[in-house]
Write a structure and sequence with these properties.
0% strand; single chain
Length: 161
C-alpha cells in the first residue's frame, strides 16, 4: 500500500469506523426483516413480492458497504490494533475477528444471490425447492450478520482503531 494512502486511511479511521458501524446497523435491520419474510415463506406463507425485493436490495447494498468500509479499515486494524495490542493481550479476540471476517466473506455472495432472487420466486409447486433454497440463504445471511455485528461490537470494546 502506498504510504500516502495508509496515512490518509489512518487519519480518517474514526470516521470510517462510524460509517462501518452505521452501515452494519442498516444491514442488521434489513437482513432481519428479510429473514422474517423468509421464515414466513418457509412456514407456508405467500411471497412478499415487492417487500422481498426492497429488503433484498437494501441488504445487498448495506452488506457491500459494510464489507468495503471494513476493507478500508483493515490496514489500520492489522497494524495498530491487532499487531500492537490484541495478539499480545487478547489473542482470542483477534481469532474472533478472523472468524467474523471469514463468515462475512462466505455470506457476501449469498447476500447478492438473495437480492437477485428476492420477489422473483412464485408460490407454485414447481418453485418450492428454489424457495426453500432462497429462504435458507436469507436465514444464513441474517445469522452471519447478527453474529458479526455482535462480535464486531465486542472486538471494538477491547480495542478500537
Amino acid at each position: 500500500m502506498p504510504p500516502g494512502l495508509h496515512t490518509f486511511l489512518y487519519g480518517g479511521r474514526k470516521a470510517l469506523l462510524l460509517l462501518h458501524a452505521a452501515s452494519a446497523v442498516l444491514l442488521l435491520g434489513s437482513a432481519t426483516h428479510l429473514a422474517a419474510v423468509a421464515w414466513r415463506r418457509l412456514r407456508g406463507g405467500r411471497s412478499g413480492g415487492a417487500l422481498e425485493r426492497r429488503w433484498g436490495r437494501v441488504q445487498a447494498l448495506a452488506f457491500g458497504a459494510v464489507y468495503a468500509l471494513g476493507a478500508l479499515l483493515y490496514p489500520t486494524y492489522r497494524v495498530h490494533v491487532r499487531g500492537l495490542y490484541l495478539d499480545r493481550h487478547y489473542p482470542w479476540v483477534a481469532n474472533l475477528f478472523d472468524v467474523k471476517e471469514n463468515l462475512a466473506t462466505m455470506a457476501l455472495p449469498l447476500s447478492l444471490g438473495v437480492a437477485l432472487l428476492a420477489g422473483r420466486l412464485t408460490d407454485e409447486p414447481d418453485d418450492r425447492a428454489a424457495v426453500r433454497a432462497w429462504c435458507s440463504m436469507a436465514l444464513f445471511v441474517a445469522a452471519v450478520v447478527w453474529f458479526n455485528t455482535l462480535s464486531g461490537w465486542l472486538i471494538v470494546s477491547y480495542r478500537s482503531v
